[in-house]
Amino acid sequence: MGQYSDTVTRAQALTLKAVGLTNTQIQQVTGIPPRTLNDILDRAIKAGYEPITSDGALGRLDSSHVANAPKSGRPSKQEAIQE
Question: Is residue 33 part of a domain?
Answer without folding.
Answer: yes
